[in-house]
Protein backbone atom coordinates (compact mmCIF):
# COMPACT_ATOMS: atom_id res chain seq x y z
CA UNK A 1 0.00 0.00 0.00
CA UNK A 2 1.17 3.51 -0.70
CA UNK A 3 1.93 6.06 1.98
CA UNK A 4 -0.30 8.81 3.24
CA UNK A 5 -1.39 11.57 0.92
CA UNK A 6 -0.62 15.25 0.99
CA UNK A 7 -3.75 17.43 1.32
CA UNK A 8 -4.94 19.01 -1.87
CA UNK A 9 -7.57 21.63 -2.52
CA UNK A 10 -11.21 20.61 -2.48
CA UNK A 11 -12.59 20.26 -5.95
CA UNK A 12 -14.00 23.62 -7.02
CA UNK A 13 -17.66 23.44 -7.94
CA UNK A 14 -20.60 25.78 -8.13
CA UNK A 15 -22.94 24.19 -5.63
CA UNK A 16 -26.65 24.45 -5.11
CA UNK A 17 -26.39 22.59 -1.80
CA UNK A 18 -29.02 23.81 0.63
CA UNK A 19 -28.53 23.07 4.33
CA UNK A 20 -31.33 23.36 6.86
CA UNK A 21 -31.62 22.44 10.50
CA UNK A 22 -34.08 19.95 11.89
CA UNK A 23 -36.43 22.89 12.48
CA UNK A 24 -36.86 23.52 8.75
CA UNK A 25 -40.42 22.98 7.57
CA UNK A 26 -41.72 21.19 4.53
CA UNK A 27 -42.19 24.38 2.54
CA UNK A 28 -40.88 22.81 -0.65
CA UNK A 29 -43.59 20.17 -0.67
CA UNK A 30 -42.97 16.45 -0.88
CA UNK A 31 -39.55 14.93 -0.54
CA UNK A 32 -39.45 13.94 -4.20
CA UNK A 33 -39.37 17.63 -5.19
CA UNK A 34 -41.34 16.89 -8.34
CA UNK A 35 -44.65 18.53 -7.46
CA UNK A 36 -43.17 22.02 -7.39
CA UNK A 37 -39.93 21.41 -9.23
CA UNK A 38 -37.92 22.02 -6.07
CA UNK A 39 -34.86 20.22 -4.73
CA UNK A 40 -35.02 16.62 -3.59
CA UNK A 41 -35.11 16.52 0.21
CA UNK A 42 -32.65 14.11 1.83
CA UNK A 43 -32.68 13.60 5.59
CA UNK A 44 -29.43 13.31 7.52
CA UNK A 45 -30.04 11.73 10.92
CA UNK A 46 -26.84 12.15 12.94
CA UNK A 47 -25.93 13.24 16.49
CA UNK A 48 -25.42 16.98 16.70
CA UNK A 49 -25.27 16.92 20.50
CA UNK A 50 -24.30 14.51 23.26
CA UNK A 51 -21.80 11.68 23.53
CA UNK A 52 -21.72 10.75 19.85
CA UNK A 53 -21.47 14.24 18.35
CA UNK A 54 -17.91 13.65 17.06
CA UNK A 55 -19.11 10.63 15.06
CA UNK A 56 -22.09 12.61 13.84
CA UNK A 57 -19.80 15.39 12.64
CA UNK A 58 -17.66 12.90 10.68
CA UNK A 59 -20.75 11.41 9.06
CA UNK A 60 -22.27 14.78 8.22
CA UNK A 61 -19.00 15.99 6.71
CA UNK A 62 -18.53 12.87 4.60
CA UNK A 63 -22.04 13.08 3.16
CA UNK A 64 -21.85 16.81 2.50
CA UNK A 65 -18.44 16.48 0.85
CA UNK A 66 -19.83 14.09 -1.77
CA UNK A 67 -22.74 16.42 -2.52
CA UNK A 68 -20.46 19.44 -2.81
CA UNK A 69 -18.14 17.52 -5.12
CA UNK A 70 -21.14 16.84 -7.37
CA UNK A 71 -22.37 20.40 -7.70
CA UNK A 72 -24.97 20.19 -4.95
CA UNK A 73 -26.77 17.42 -6.79
CA UNK A 74 -27.52 13.70 -6.48
CA UNK A 75 -28.60 11.82 -9.56
CA UNK A 76 -28.42 15.07 -11.48
CA UNK A 77 -31.06 16.63 -9.22
CA UNK A 78 -30.48 19.51 -6.82
CA UNK A 79 -30.80 18.38 -3.22
CA UNK A 80 -31.72 19.96 0.08
CA UNK A 81 -30.14 18.24 3.08
CA UNK A 82 -32.42 18.33 6.12
CA UNK A 83 -30.37 17.68 9.25
CA UNK A 84 -31.99 16.12 12.32
CA UNK A 85 -30.23 15.59 15.66
CA UNK A 86 -30.17 11.90 16.59
CA UNK A 87 -28.97 12.79 20.09
CA UNK A 88 -27.72 9.96 22.27
CA UNK A 89 -30.80 7.88 23.07
CA UNK A 90 -33.16 5.68 21.13
CA UNK A 91 -36.04 8.01 22.02
CA UNK A 92 -34.31 11.14 20.70
CA UNK A 93 -33.27 9.31 17.54
CA UNK A 94 -36.78 8.01 16.93
CA UNK A 95 -38.34 11.46 17.40
CA UNK A 96 -35.88 12.99 14.93
CA UNK A 97 -36.53 10.24 12.39
CA UNK A 98 -40.28 10.67 12.68
CA UNK A 99 -39.92 14.38 11.97
CA UNK A 100 -37.87 13.72 8.84
CA UNK A 101 -40.33 11.16 7.49
CA UNK A 102 -43.69 12.56 8.59
CA UNK A 103 -43.17 16.33 8.72
CA UNK A 104 -40.27 17.06 6.35
CA UNK A 105 -41.40 14.25 4.02
CA UNK A 106 -37.92 13.49 2.81
CA UNK A 107 -37.16 11.26 -0.16
CA UNK A 108 -34.61 9.19 1.78
CA UNK A 109 -32.57 9.31 5.00
CA UNK A 110 -28.92 8.61 5.78
CA UNK A 111 -26.81 8.54 8.94
CA UNK A 112 -27.68 6.87 12.29
CA UNK A 113 -24.89 6.22 14.79
CA UNK A 114 -26.62 4.16 17.47
CA UNK A 115 -27.77 0.55 17.17
CA UNK A 116 -30.55 1.37 19.64
CA UNK A 117 -31.78 4.09 17.30
CA UNK A 118 -31.77 1.95 14.17
CA UNK A 119 -33.63 -0.84 15.97
CA UNK A 120 -36.11 1.76 17.24
CA UNK A 121 -36.84 3.24 13.81
CA UNK A 122 -37.00 -0.02 11.85
CA UNK A 123 -40.81 -0.14 11.77
CA UNK A 124 -41.06 3.57 10.86
CA UNK A 125 -39.03 3.16 7.68
CA UNK A 126 -40.52 -0.19 6.74
CA UNK A 127 -44.14 0.95 7.11
CA UNK A 128 -43.55 4.40 5.59
CA UNK A 129 -41.63 2.81 2.70
CA UNK A 130 -38.91 5.47 2.89
CA UNK A 131 -35.36 4.19 2.31
CA UNK A 132 -32.79 4.57 5.08
CA UNK A 133 -29.23 4.29 3.79
CA UNK A 134 -27.52 4.08 7.16
CA UNK A 135 -23.80 4.74 7.41
CA UNK A 136 -22.87 3.39 10.83
CA UNK A 137 -25.26 1.44 13.08
CA UNK A 138 -25.78 -2.15 11.96
CA UNK A 139 -26.49 -4.56 14.84
CA UNK A 140 -26.55 -8.30 14.25
CA UNK A 141 -30.24 -8.29 15.25
CA UNK A 142 -31.29 -6.03 12.34
CA UNK A 143 -32.59 -8.49 9.75
CA UNK A 144 -35.49 -8.93 7.36
CA UNK A 145 -35.70 -5.32 6.20
CA UNK A 146 -36.64 -4.05 2.75
CA UNK A 147 -36.11 -0.30 3.19
CA UNK A 148 -33.05 -0.23 5.44
CA UNK A 149 -29.58 -0.43 3.90
CA UNK A 150 -26.17 0.10 5.54
CA UNK A 151 -22.92 1.21 3.91
CA UNK A 152 -20.88 0.31 7.03
CA UNK A 153 -20.79 -3.34 8.25
CA UNK A 154 -22.56 -5.69 10.62
CA UNK A 155 -21.33 -5.22 14.19
CA UNK A 156 -19.58 -8.58 14.48
CA UNK A 157 -17.57 -8.29 11.25
CA UNK A 158 -14.49 -6.38 12.54
CA UNK A 159 -13.99 -9.20 15.06
CA UNK A 160 -14.60 -11.85 12.41
CA UNK A 161 -12.00 -10.22 10.15
CA UNK A 162 -9.29 -10.54 12.82
CA UNK A 163 -9.92 -14.03 14.18
CA UNK A 164 -7.95 -16.18 11.75
CA UNK A 165 -5.01 -13.75 11.60
CA UNK A 166 -4.67 -13.66 15.39
CA UNK A 167 -4.94 -17.45 15.64
CA UNK A 168 -2.05 -17.78 13.18
CA UNK A 169 0.15 -15.11 14.73
CA UNK A 170 -0.49 -14.91 18.48
CA UNK A 171 1.83 -17.79 19.37
CA UNK A 172 -0.32 -18.87 22.28
CA UNK A 173 -3.58 -18.23 24.14
CA UNK A 174 -5.46 -14.95 23.69
CA UNK A 175 -7.23 -12.95 26.40
CA UNK A 176 -10.64 -11.48 25.44
CA UNK A 177 -11.88 -8.28 27.08
CA UNK A 178 -14.61 -5.86 25.98
CA UNK A 179 -17.06 -3.23 27.14
CA UNK A 180 -20.14 -4.90 28.57
CA UNK A 181 -22.85 -3.90 26.09
CA UNK A 182 -24.26 -5.33 22.87
CA UNK A 183 -21.56 -4.07 20.50
CA UNK A 184 -18.82 -5.52 22.72
CA UNK A 185 -20.55 -8.89 22.85
CA UNK A 186 -21.11 -8.86 19.07
CA UNK A 187 -17.41 -8.17 18.45
CA UNK A 188 -16.22 -10.90 20.82
CA UNK A 189 -18.61 -13.47 19.36
CA UNK A 190 -17.55 -12.47 15.85
CA UNK A 191 -13.89 -12.87 16.78
CA UNK A 192 -14.43 -16.30 18.32
CA UNK A 193 -16.38 -17.47 15.25
CA UNK A 194 -13.21 -17.32 13.12
CA UNK A 195 -10.49 -17.54 15.81
CA UNK A 196 -11.50 -20.88 17.32
CA UNK A 197 -12.00 -22.78 14.01
CA UNK A 198 -8.53 -21.56 12.96
CA UNK A 199 -6.99 -23.30 15.98
CA UNK A 200 -6.87 -20.33 18.35
CA UNK A 201 -6.82 -20.92 22.10
CA UNK A 202 -8.37 -18.70 24.78
CA UNK A 203 -6.70 -17.58 27.99
CA UNK A 204 -9.73 -18.30 30.16
CA UNK A 205 -13.23 -16.93 29.54
CA UNK A 206 -13.99 -13.54 28.07
CA UNK A 207 -14.20 -10.56 30.43
CA UNK A 208 -16.83 -7.81 30.03
CA UNK A 209 -16.13 -4.59 31.89
CA UNK A 210 -19.12 -2.58 33.18
CA UNK A 211 -20.18 0.11 30.70
CA UNK A 212 -20.03 3.07 30.89
CA UNK A 213 -18.82 3.13 34.49
CA UNK A 214 -15.38 1.52 34.14
CA UNK A 215 -12.60 4.11 34.36
CA UNK A 216 -9.98 2.10 36.23
CA UNK A 217 -8.81 -0.94 34.24
CA UNK A 218 -5.99 -1.91 36.62
CA UNK A 219 -7.72 -5.01 38.06
CA UNK A 220 -8.44 -6.31 34.57
CA UNK A 221 -4.91 -5.58 33.38
CA UNK A 222 -3.61 -7.60 36.32
CA UNK A 223 -5.81 -10.49 35.15
CA UNK A 224 -4.27 -10.23 31.69
CA UNK A 225 -0.74 -10.17 33.12
CA UNK A 226 -1.39 -13.28 35.21
CA UNK A 227 -3.31 -15.22 32.55
CA UNK A 228 -0.36 -16.42 30.48
CA UNK A 229 -1.88 -14.77 27.40
CA UNK A 230 0.37 -14.18 24.40
CA UNK A 231 -1.98 -11.58 22.92
CA UNK A 232 -5.14 -9.62 23.81
CA UNK A 233 -8.28 -8.98 21.77
CA UNK A 234 -10.34 -6.08 23.08
CA UNK A 235 -13.26 -3.88 22.10
CA UNK A 236 -13.45 -0.29 23.32
CA UNK A 237 -14.44 2.99 21.69
CA UNK A 238 -14.63 6.66 22.63
CA UNK A 239 -13.34 7.73 26.03
CA UNK A 240 -13.03 4.12 27.21
CA UNK A 241 -10.63 3.44 24.32
CA UNK A 242 -8.37 6.27 25.46
CA UNK A 243 -8.44 5.09 29.09
CA UNK A 244 -7.80 1.44 28.24
CA UNK A 245 -4.91 2.10 25.84
CA UNK A 246 -3.13 4.53 28.18
CA UNK A 247 -3.51 2.23 31.18
CA UNK A 248 -2.40 -0.78 29.11
CA UNK A 249 0.86 1.09 28.41
CA UNK A 250 1.27 2.41 31.95
CA UNK A 251 0.75 -1.09 33.39
CA UNK A 252 3.70 -2.30 31.31
CA UNK A 253 1.79 -4.54 28.90
CA UNK A 254 2.38 -2.54 25.71
CA UNK A 255 5.26 -4.05 23.78
CA UNK A 256 5.03 -7.21 25.88
CA UNK A 257 1.60 -8.60 24.98
CA UNK A 258 0.37 -7.53 21.51
CA UNK A 259 -2.99 -5.76 21.50
CA UNK A 260 -5.53 -6.50 18.74
CA UNK A 261 -8.91 -4.81 18.34
CA UNK A 262 -11.64 -3.68 15.96
CA UNK A 263 -10.54 -0.38 14.45
CA UNK A 264 -12.71 1.79 16.73
CA UNK A 265 -10.01 1.45 19.40
CA UNK A 266 -7.78 3.84 17.45
CA UNK A 267 -10.17 5.52 14.98
CA UNK A 268 -10.57 9.28 14.70
CA UNK A 269 -10.14 11.60 17.64
CA UNK A 270 -9.38 8.86 20.19
CA UNK A 271 -6.01 8.22 18.53
CA UNK A 272 -4.88 11.76 19.26
CA UNK A 273 -5.98 11.33 22.87
CA UNK A 274 -3.98 8.11 23.21
CA UNK A 275 -0.74 9.65 21.96
CA UNK A 276 2.26 7.34 21.73
CA UNK A 277 0.55 4.81 24.00
CA UNK A 278 -1.24 3.56 20.87
CA UNK A 279 1.93 2.78 18.89
CA UNK A 280 2.02 -0.83 17.73
CA UNK A 281 -1.69 -1.57 18.26
CA UNK A 282 -3.10 -3.78 15.50
CA UNK A 283 -6.70 -3.27 14.37
CA UNK A 284 -9.12 -4.48 11.72
CA UNK A 285 -11.33 -2.09 9.78
CA UNK A 286 -12.91 -1.67 6.36
CA UNK A 287 -11.05 1.59 5.74
CA UNK A 288 -7.82 3.47 6.33
CA UNK A 289 -7.00 6.97 5.11
CA UNK A 290 -3.78 5.74 3.47
CA UNK A 291 -5.39 3.19 1.13
CA UNK A 292 -3.91 3.30 -2.35
CA UNK A 293 -6.81 3.29 -4.80
CA UNK A 294 -8.22 5.84 -7.23
CA UNK A 295 -11.36 6.64 -5.25
CA UNK A 296 -9.43 7.22 -2.03
CA UNK A 297 -6.91 9.42 -3.82
CA UNK A 298 -9.87 11.68 -4.59
CA UNK A 299 -11.64 11.36 -1.25
CA UNK A 300 -8.93 11.42 1.44
CA UNK A 301 -7.05 14.56 0.32
CA UNK A 302 -10.30 16.43 -0.36
CA UNK A 303 -11.63 15.57 3.10
CA UNK A 304 -8.32 16.56 4.73
CA UNK A 305 -8.36 19.87 2.88
CA UNK A 306 -11.99 20.63 3.71
CA UNK A 307 -12.03 19.65 7.39
CA UNK A 308 -8.41 19.65 8.56
CA UNK A 309 -8.34 15.98 9.58
CA UNK A 310 -7.88 12.59 7.97
CA UNK A 311 -11.18 10.88 7.10
CA UNK A 312 -12.50 8.12 9.33
CA UNK A 313 -14.52 5.05 8.45
CA UNK A 314 -17.61 6.98 9.59
CA UNK A 315 -16.94 9.78 7.08
CA UNK A 316 -16.09 7.31 4.31
CA UNK A 317 -19.28 5.27 4.81
CA UNK A 318 -21.33 8.47 4.69
CA UNK A 319 -19.59 9.59 1.48
CA UNK A 320 -20.51 6.19 0.08
CA UNK A 321 -24.12 6.55 1.28
CA UNK A 322 -24.37 9.74 -0.76
CA UNK A 323 -22.85 7.86 -3.71
CA UNK A 324 -25.46 5.11 -3.38
CA UNK A 325 -28.26 7.68 -3.40
CA UNK A 326 -26.64 9.47 -6.34
CA UNK A 327 -26.70 6.29 -8.40
CA UNK A 328 -30.19 5.27 -7.25
CA UNK A 329 -31.81 8.65 -7.94
CA UNK A 330 -30.28 8.69 -11.41
CA UNK A 331 -31.47 5.13 -12.03
CA UNK A 332 -35.00 5.88 -10.75
CA UNK A 333 -35.49 8.72 -13.24
CA UNK A 334 -38.88 10.17 -14.08
CA UNK A 335 -41.07 10.96 -11.10
CA UNK A 336 -38.71 10.29 -8.20
CA UNK A 337 -40.41 8.66 -5.19
CA UNK A 338 -39.10 6.91 -2.06
CA UNK A 339 -40.28 3.58 -3.43
CA UNK A 340 -38.67 4.05 -6.84
CA UNK A 341 -35.40 5.10 -5.21
CA UNK A 342 -35.49 2.09 -2.88
CA UNK A 343 -36.03 -0.24 -5.83
CA UNK A 344 -33.10 1.40 -7.59
CA UNK A 345 -30.81 0.97 -4.55
CA UNK A 346 -31.23 -2.78 -4.91
CA UNK A 347 -29.82 -2.48 -8.45
CA UNK A 348 -26.83 -0.14 -7.90
CA UNK A 349 -24.37 -3.02 -8.18
CA UNK A 350 -20.68 -2.49 -7.46
CA UNK A 351 -19.64 0.73 -5.69
CA UNK A 352 -16.23 2.24 -6.47
CA UNK A 353 -15.36 3.29 -2.93
CA UNK A 354 -12.38 4.72 -1.02
CA UNK A 355 -12.35 1.42 0.90
CA UNK A 356 -12.11 -0.60 -2.33
CA UNK A 357 -15.00 -1.90 -4.42
CA UNK A 358 -18.03 -3.35 -2.66
CA UNK A 359 -21.68 -4.26 -3.26
CA UNK A 360 -24.78 -4.86 -1.16
CA UNK A 361 -25.59 -8.42 -0.12
CA UNK A 362 -29.14 -9.76 0.20
CA UNK A 363 -29.32 -8.37 3.75
CA UNK A 364 -28.56 -4.80 2.67
CA UNK A 365 -25.01 -4.62 4.04
CA UNK A 366 -21.68 -4.53 2.15
CA UNK A 367 -19.65 -7.41 0.79
CA UNK A 368 -16.33 -5.62 1.23
CA UNK A 369 -12.59 -5.85 1.96
CA UNK A 370 -11.16 -5.70 5.48
CA UNK A 371 -7.68 -4.48 6.40
CA UNK A 372 -5.11 -5.04 9.12
CA UNK A 373 -3.80 -1.70 10.38
CA UNK A 374 -0.95 -0.84 12.73
CA UNK A 375 -0.53 2.43 14.60
CA UNK A 376 2.78 3.96 13.59
CA UNK A 377 3.86 7.46 14.65
CA UNK A 378 0.34 8.49 15.58
CA UNK A 379 -1.42 7.21 12.45
CA UNK A 380 -3.24 4.05 11.39
CA UNK A 381 -1.25 2.42 8.59
CA UNK A 382 -2.50 -0.47 6.45
CA UNK A 383 -0.20 -3.50 6.61
CA UNK A 384 -2.26 -6.10 4.71
CA UNK A 385 -5.71 -7.10 3.51
CA UNK A 386 -7.51 -9.63 5.72
CA UNK A 387 -10.02 -10.70 3.06
CA UNK A 388 -13.62 -9.93 2.21
CA UNK A 389 -16.67 -10.42 4.43
CA UNK A 390 -20.39 -9.97 4.01
CA UNK A 391 -21.13 -12.55 1.35
User: What is the structural class?
Assistant: alpha/beta
Distance between the termini: 25 Å
Strand fraction? 15-25%
**Which blocks of ≥5 consecutive residues have pLDDT under 50?**
1-30
Could you tell me the radius of gyration in angstroms?
21 Å
Number of strand segments:
15
Q: Write the H/E string, N to C.
A: EEHEEHEHEEHEHEHEHEHEHHHEEE
User: How many DSSP H or I helices?
Assistant: 11
Question: What's the overall average pLDDT, rounded?
Answer: 90
Helix content: 25-40%
Shape: elongated
Biggest pleated-sheet summary: 8 strands, mixed
Which short descriptors sum up this protein?
11 helices, eight-stranded mixed β-sheet, elongated, disordered N terminus, alpha/beta, about 20% strand, about 400 residues
Q: How would the blueprint of this fold be written?
A:
Elements: E1 18-20, E2 40-46, H1 53-69, E3 73-74, E4 77-85, H2 90-103, E5 108-111, H3 115-128, E6 132-134, E7 148-150, H4 157-169, E8 174-179, H5 182-195, E9 207-209, H6 218-226, E10 231-235, H7 238-250, E11 259-262, H8 269-274, E12 282-285, H9 294-307, H10 313-332, H11 338-345, E13 359-360, E14 366-376, E15 379-389
Parallel strand pairs: 1-4, 2-4, 2-5, 5-6, 6-7, 8-9, 8-10, 10-11, 11-12
Antiparallel strand pairs: 3-4, 12-14, 13-14, 14-15
Brief account:
The protein is α/β, with parallel strands linked by helices. The chain has helices at residues 53-69, 90-103, 115-128, 157-169, 182-195, 218-226, 238-250, 269-274, 294-307, 313-332, 338-345, and strands at 18-20, 40-46, 73-74, 77-85, 108-111, 132-134, 148-150, 174-179, 207-209, 231-235, 259-262, 282-285, 359-360, 366-376, 379-389. The chain is elongated and about 70 Å long.
Amino acid sequence: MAGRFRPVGLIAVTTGLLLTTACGGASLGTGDGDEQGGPLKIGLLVPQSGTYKALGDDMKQGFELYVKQHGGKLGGREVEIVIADEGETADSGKAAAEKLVKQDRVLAVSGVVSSATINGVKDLFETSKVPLVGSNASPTTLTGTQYIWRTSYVNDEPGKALGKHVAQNAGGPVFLIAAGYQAGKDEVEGFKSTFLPAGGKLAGGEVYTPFPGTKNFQPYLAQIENSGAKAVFCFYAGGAAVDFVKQYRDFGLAGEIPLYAPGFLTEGGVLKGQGDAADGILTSLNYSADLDNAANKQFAPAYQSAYGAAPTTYAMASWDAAQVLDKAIKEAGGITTPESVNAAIAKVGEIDSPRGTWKFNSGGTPVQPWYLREVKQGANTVTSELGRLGG
